[in-house]
Specification:
Blueprint: E1 2-9, E2 23-28, H1 39-45, H2 47-54, H3 58-79, E3 80-90, E4 93-97, E5 100-104, H4 106-116, E6 119-128, E7 153-161, H5 173-176, H6 182-188, E8 192-193, H7 209-215, H8 221-230, E9 236-239, H9 246-254, E10 257-262, H10 265-274, H11 278-302, E11 309-310, E12 317-318, E13 329-336, E14 368-377
Helix pairs in contact: 1-2, 2-3, 8-9, 9-11
The structure holds S-adenosylmethionine (SAM).
């Protein structure tokens, strides 16, 4: 099986390169309004935002930032298929403006935006992120009543486009082979994830600290789980706030196609550095899932409970009939696709001799990067 992965360097307020109804799942994390690290980016999208911040009008800045995100949500509505799912990872912001401290409820504003576009909200997930202990106590320490609770969670808001779930042909292999184990279902489909660790994504190389700080990457576990939960093999996953490409990395490891769009070409260029490690990463994820399943089998048997079914492709029992067809995959090979340039340049714009397969084309201001991955059933040894 082959999957393709395309990333556009550009503004997701206009996703013209992506066809209507061509995406089954969106997994993304926007820049969070009213988190200071994104002020300049939002001001670049609408200068009135900078004016509002400067004049101390936090509420106006918050509204204007969300107005920019709304334009991306409108594009998601267009490109998603009926019954397609959008998973939006977002955190609220706390901020003092003009001497006044308050919370800016991003999750509530995004929920409202999707609902008003006709999406159906589905139960959401809260995940616990590691807190910076220095920032843990806000306000006046041990004396009531002016201390504030620290935000240590983020949301994954989940929406379905249209009132009906997606349909599949009966017995569709690509759906049954993408099934998850019963105990994974129990862990993933809870509304509180406490077992996801925030990670500082290694972008590689010295002098990359600034890039890393600016990426605000989420842990791979988040998009990987969501992709397994809400899509089947062969589906296409879109991230319109692509950043360092964590969603694409997860989609490749999970055997789905992906699309992405990102303003900052510097982030996109760095993805090439991560590509050589993808086959080993995908194998390790698949093997870890199987190992965890075997541990679950042992503990369930020790607890005196039995199993009614055997997996078709693995030497292991499973709890339900639906898990029998599970077939994990690993990436056998991955290569860069040719870019969209007319000059046949398949190299980085700064280095035509590049052998890294980096396929951006810097001349037309509309760069596109792409990868093709070949997947095979998970090798067990
Ligand atoms: C929170 S970060 C996403 C991080 C990503 N999930 C990862 O794991 O690396 C948000 C990203 O959206 C990008 N961005 C913001 N507004 C955008 C827009 N209008 N179009 C495209 N990308 C945008 C920013 O440059 C930033 O990289």
């Amino acid at each position: 099986m082959e999957t393709t992965h395309r990333v556009f360097v550009g503004d997701s307020r206009d996703l013209a390169a992506i066809d209507d109804a061509s995406v089954e799942l969106v997994v993304t994390s926007p820049p969070y309004p009213m988190i200071e690290m994104w002020d300049d980016l939002f001001t670049g999208l609408d200068p009135a935002i900078g004016d509002a911040l400067e004049s101390g009008d936090g509420r106006a800045a918050f509204d204007a930032m969300h107005a920019q995100l709304d334009r991306v949500w409108a594009e998601l509505e267009r490109v998603l298929v009926d019954g397609g799912i959008a998973c939006i990872n977002v955190g609220d912001a706390t901020r003092t403006i003009d001497g006044s401290f308050r919370v800016y409820p991003n999750h509530a504003r995004v929920l409202e935006a999707f609902e008003s576009r006709g999406f159906d909200p589905l139960p959401d997930v809260l995940w616990r992120k590691p807190a910076n202990s220095a920032a843990k106590f806000m306000g006046s320490g041990m004396i009531p009543p002016n201390a504030y609770v620290t935000l240590e969670h983020e949301y994954v808001l989940v929406f379905r486009k249209g009132g009906e779930s997606r349909g599949f042909e009966p017995g569709a292999d690509r759906r049954y082979e993408a099934a998850y184990f019963w105990e994974e279902r129990n862990r993933w489909f809870t509304d509180l994830w406490t077992d996801v660790q925030g990670e500082l994504q290694a972008l590689g190389g010295d002098g990359e600290g600034d890039l890393r700080d600016r990426s605000a990457a989420y842990p791979l576990e988040i998009p990987y789980r969501l992709i397994c939960m809400y899509s089947a093999y062969g589906d296409t996953v879109l991230d319109p706030f692509w950043g360092t490409g964590t969603t694409t990395l997860a989609a490749i490891c999970a055997g789905r196609h992906s699309l992405g769009s990102e303003l900052e070409e510097a982030f996109v260029e760095r993805f090439d550095d991560r590509v050589p490690a993808i086959p080993a990463l995908s194998r390790s994820i698949g093997r870890t899932r199987l190992e965890r399943h075997r541990e679950f089998v042992t503990s369930r048997l020790e607890a005196g409970k039995g199993f009614e079914y055997e997996a078709d492709y693995y030497d292991t029992p499973v709890v339900t009939k639906m898990e029998r067809g599970i077939r994990l995959r690993e990436v056998d090979a991955i290569e860069a696709l040719d870019g969209d340039s007319d000059d046949g340049n398949n190299g980085d714009s700064d280095d035509d001799n590049s052998s890294d397969g980096n396929n951006g084309d810097s001349d037309d201001g509309n760069n596109e990067y792409g990868y093709r991955a070949e997947h095979v059933p998970l090798r067990l040894e």
